[in-house]
Amino acid sequence: MRSEKIIPLFKKISSLKGIGPKLENAFVNLFGDSKIVYFFWNIPKDFSKRNLIKKITLDDLGKNVILKIRINKHNIFFKNKIFRINCDSNNVDIDIVFFRGSSSYIKNSLPLNEEKIISGKLELYKNKFQITHPENILNINEINEIKIFQPLYSLTKGITQKVYYKTLTKSLINLPNLDEWINIKTIKKYNFLPWKDTLNKIHNPTNESDLINKNQFRRRLAYDELMAHQLSLSIIKQYNKKNKGIKFSNNHKINIFIKSLPYELTQSQKTSINEIKNDLLSEYQMIRLLQGDVGSGKTIISIIAMLIGCESGFQNAIMAPTEILATQHYETISKFLKSTKFKIILLTGKDIGKDRQIKLEQIKNQSADIIIGTHSLIQEDVHFKKLGLVIIDEQHRFGVHQRLAFTYKGLKPNILVMTATPIPRTLTLAVYGDMSESRIIEKPIGRVEINTTAKPINKIKDLIDGIKRIIKLNQKIYWVCPMIDESEEIDLEAANVRYEKLKKIFGQNVLLIHGQMKSLEKEIIMKKFKNENYNILVATTVIEVGIDIPDASSIIIEHAERFGLAQLHQLRGRVGRGNIKSNCVLLYKENLGSIAKERINIMRKTNDGFKIAEKDLEIRGPGEILGKKQSGFPNFFIADLTFDKDLFDSARLEIDNLFISTKEININENHKNLLYLFEKDIALKTLKSG
Predict the structure, then answer these.
(1) C-beta separation of 515 from 542 below 8 A
(2) Contact at 8 Å (CB) between 227 and 192?
(3) Vertex 670 angle, CA 668 and 675, to 5°
(4) How close are the terminal C-alpha atoms of the chain, in Å?
(5) What is the bridge-based pairing of β-strands 414-419 and 387-393?
(6) What is the CATH number of the domain that holds 542?
(7) Is the C-alpha dihedral spanning 259, 330, 320, 483 positive or negative?
């Protein structure tokens, strides 16, 4: 339960004076919620500077000015509903203009022959100075109430800057004095002010430096947010460590299986297997992230983990984001485990009627040991008899709730999350901080490096001879385009257009695949490309994840400057999956910008996905890399890991020390207030549940 001090902050915006239903709805559209606390987290993005002017000159045009005026005459044009009030400002003629104004309001606010203080943007109309809809109209003795630096906020329809700031000011009155949750060393290190003072300062800037990313006020609030996030993850992780799960048994057959593999596992693979095995043999639930670059050998690790589950008498499930990837997993796992007694089935959305019922019964009575599928595995009609392990492939394509769906079914299986999207260390801790982590950093022995080159798009003709040579070797080629159809607005070669052009050169040897096709259609095309005499596949980014064709030796990425680094790397990983020399060609438009040049140069220099990911974080920011909606990426209000990595590290260290010192989930009321402020309710519920 929230403390009495912070309860007022979670009242509805409508509890503030002057906020009716219409305005409240506008604020809900802006914040996504109706709580007063959201005003504090919506920090200013810019400011307008008002200039105190004694006498107007042409140099002041376009500026936001503060003027002393005397009202001379009211001119009302009823036809156009325009109010033009003629005034004098230190012997300079100026008009104050209102469109669709209120006659009574104007007469009361700007009475004839009186002096007033006004502020607003100075304009020139028909060689005469004017201010339209002044921001402030005050009495002479109220001049100090006008802010020189006026903060500006990201708003939505129905809310003006004036209305917003007025409402915010009312909200700031409710700020309580809260005891500090940051340790004194950190406060001194970053020169932080108390929380309440910080909020008042950031919403009332006094100079330009108060609004830059590195100002101490934003940084203090960013630290609070990062600390709340890390504390929440640590509580959940600590709880998971004590959460009794499903204990597997040790079996010597696993070692026999590993020795029977046709290749030697890398050291990273061996380490990851041991970490997973130790988790599975413990009495506590495994919740582990397995990271590995494209083609690093995660699949064999998942097979070994499932084999441990099968030998222990439990069912195992692997959930993939697409039917294509699920089918690929089914084929690969079936091949590796064909000599075992364990039954493997594939369950996707295509399974309907009698076929589906047969498979559901096999899952229910445990005649199926390994169940591979898409999100269909978490549908209501799927009932596992003895589920011991869930493997989620390409986690960034699933939401966090899908990961937890098996628990919602009343089960507590061990969970292994896999991703082939290398994630920078900071992001891993921010997104998956509630999990243990294993990393595969080497490529499998014998895997050939991909040679990456870059060419301007006007050199496409030079590629054709090279493609012909590749086809003579009976190797396959991906040609990736960033769009499906032509757009007049964006000068890109659409996949459909490229497909038709290549068909004119190579005849029926070319296939087309894109995201607007139905799943069955995409699956048929991929099977044709893999198994039949087709050498070129024109595609959109639908092939980014989960396509494994060993004799695909080349990939051409058209308009490479349009892709992020992580995506380029994922696409490149579609080739080089066998022992064939492989190539990646990045086609780019001429006159590249500096960031696009940087991306392409990095791709040419390295095949290391983790190095690329770190650079991508630096260039694009965290939300762009993972995708907030798909990945469960924390939707930070204030913090930005691009700027605040040092704060993140400090906050994580502070939280780690907190748990080391207590050795229990035992946080004080100050920390609870912090969690409540940033609505980390799941952590607080975890605390309450024991």
Answers:
(1) yes
(2) no
(3) 95
(4) 15
(5) parallel
(6) 3.40.50.300
(7) positive
8 A C-beta contact, residue 362 and residue 347 = no
Residue 477 and residue 343 share a domain: no
Residue 592 lies in a domain: yes
Helices 298-311 and 323-336, packing angle to 10 deg: 60
Q: Please indicate, yes or no, if residue 634 is contained in any of the structural domains.
A: no
Cα–Cα dist 70/86, whole Å: 9
pLDDT-wise least confident of 252-256, 601-605, 639-643: 639-643
| Same domain membership, residue 259 and residue 233 | no
Cα three-residue angle 166-167-170, rounded to 5 degrees: 95
Which domain, by its residues, includes 400?
A: 253-440
Contacts of 22 (CB under 8 A, 6+ apart): 158
Tally Cβ neighbours within 10 Å of residue 427. Answer: 22
DSSP code at position 459: G
Which contiguous run of DSSP H or E holds residue 235?
helix 216-241
- Global confidence as pTM: 0.69
CATH of the domain at 70: 2.40.50.140
- Same structural domain for residues 298 and 403? yes
The sign of the dihedral angle between the CA atoms of 607, 609, 615, 616 is: positive
568 within a domain of the structure (yes/no): yes
Give Cβ neighbours of residue 83 (< 8 Å, ≥ 6 apart).
74, 75, 76, 77, 97, 98, 99, 101, 103, 106
Q: Alpha-carbon distance 648 to 444, whole Å?
A: 33
C-alpha angle 483/486/489, rounded to 5°? 95
% helix / strand / coil in the chain, to the nearest 5?
A: 45, 20, 35
Q: Does residue 301 contact residue 464 with C-beta atoms inside 8 Å?
A: no
Is residue 478 located within the same domain as residue 585? yes
325 and 377 in a single domain? The answer is: yes
262 and 394 fall within a common domain: yes
Q: How far apart are CA 262 and CA 246, in angstroms?
A: 31
Last residue of a domain, one of 173, 205, 226: 173
Residues 371 and 454 in one domain: no
CA dihedral defined by 425, 430, 436, 438, rounded to 10 degrees?
A: -30
Which of 140, 173, 206 is a domain's end point? 173
284 pLDDT band, cuts 50/70/90, is: confident
Torsion of CA 318, 322, 327, 329, to 10 degrees: -40
* Nearest-angstrom CA–CA distance, 364 and 376: 15
Q: Could you tell me the CA-to-CA distances from 517 to 105, 166, 378 in Å, in that order?
A: 60, 51, 24
The single-letter DSSP state of residue 474 is: T
Phi/psi for 182 (5° steps) reads -90, 140
Give the DSSP H or E segment for 560.
Answer: none
Q: How many CA atoms lie within 13 A of 319 on its CB side?
A: 23
User: For residues 414 and 561, what is the distance between their CA atoms, to the nearest angstrom?
Assistant: 41
Query: What pLDDT, in 10s, does the model give residues 26-50?
Result: 999 999 889 999 999 999 988 888 8
Task: Mark whether 297 and 428 lie in a shared domain.
Answer: yes
Residue 214 forms part of a structural domain: yes
Residues, the chain, total? 690
Structurally, how many domains does the chain consist of?
5
Whether residue 557 contacts residue 563, with contact meaning beta carbons closer than 8 Å, is answered with yes
pLDDT one-digit tens code per residue, 590-630 = 888 888 888 899 999 988 888 888 887 777 655 444 444 43
